[in-house]
Fold:
Amino acid sequence: MASQLRILPYPSIPCPPLIIPSSHLLPRQAMAFSPAATATAAAAATAFTSGRITSSPSSLSSPFLPRAAGAIVARRRVAPTAHVAAVSVRAEAAGAKKSVLVVNTNSGGHAVIGFYFAKALLAAGHAVTVLTVGDEGSDKMKKPPFSRFSELTSAGATTVWGDPADVGAAVGGATFDVVLENNGKDLDAVRPVADWAKSAGVGQFLFISSAGIYTPTDQPPHVEGDAVKESAGHVGVEKYIAAEFGSWASFRPQYMIGSGNNKDCEEWFFDRIVRKRPVPIPGSGMQLTNISHARDLGSMLTLAVENPDEAAGKIFNCVSDRAVTLDGLAKMCAAAAGTTAEIVHYDPAAAGVDAKKAFPFRNMHFYAEPRAAKEVLGWTSSTNLPEDLKERFAEYASSGRGEKAMTFDLDDKILSAVGAAPVSVAA
Structure:
């Protein structure tokens, strides 16, 4: 059969032959719009969602296939010669340089993910195009990480701006091996990109989801396979791409740190610490959360691109491998600034404030672990929160934000409620 490699099962085990699609055996440029390749990919997606098994044994034996996709996990024994052949095929695919499209949001904490992912891909020799939502001349593009896109273009990346709903026009008909969707939070936003990618013969579709879709648990941390909120938009996207693509993966980040991030998290602490104000933290301050350097997210995504068979059909918690308490974060931020923090704990209900408005983190345990990435991709974390906070404080100090006049009305309300005299705001 010209378009498929058939690896016969071990004679003593009555199971159908394992079929490896031809897109794993030939360069993508030769297969991009092949009818046989399109049919094979469609069959693989159908088999995945119906429970019929057409992927390699290594991807099937992992415990990290999502329950929502309805996959059947099974183990199959193959003859030693067949195993060697399969490993050789995967090694060739893993070593190939890819053309990757990053569909990047133009605001919020996720924007920095696409920036670091592009940098990691370029460093590994892959070709990168970054499609950012909106207009290159907008005020949003004057802020990081967009203001630092010259770092990408100088390394060989292509940057374009446009509407993901018409992604084909935005990229000018270019073809890609991989698409990362790092913009949409629900199916209405993601479907046009996913449908275009499938029609264009894209071999691998990756999606930035969120660890916020997990339901609260009495047994932290969250791990891949834990229950999720079925009403969450990200869940609908994960189900859709699982049905449409043979090679897909979803990544669930939490809070991020890193040079170029434009969402206030650690800055909230710095604003109070440099002005010698108390740091009001709801609850006991012992709530666990996870803060990851964006380079960790980029390296995990790059491993998925370079090991598509291993990543296929998997959910990955895109986080570091250590938790931090809310009190601990305040103390680390103070240490990064070369001082100490005065922490005040309070009950939001008793203080008459909404903790979501008064504090930048969830007032609960919100902690996931990257077990799948470690086991499936061989990924390791490089996040070192005390050192990474020093990087962020250096940027904070150089921005002049610490000298700007600020008001802290909610803080003062909280401090009054707990009997701590409000501190005058430094100009």
Remarks:
- The chain has a mean pLDDT of 83.
- The two ends are 76 Å apart (CA to CA).
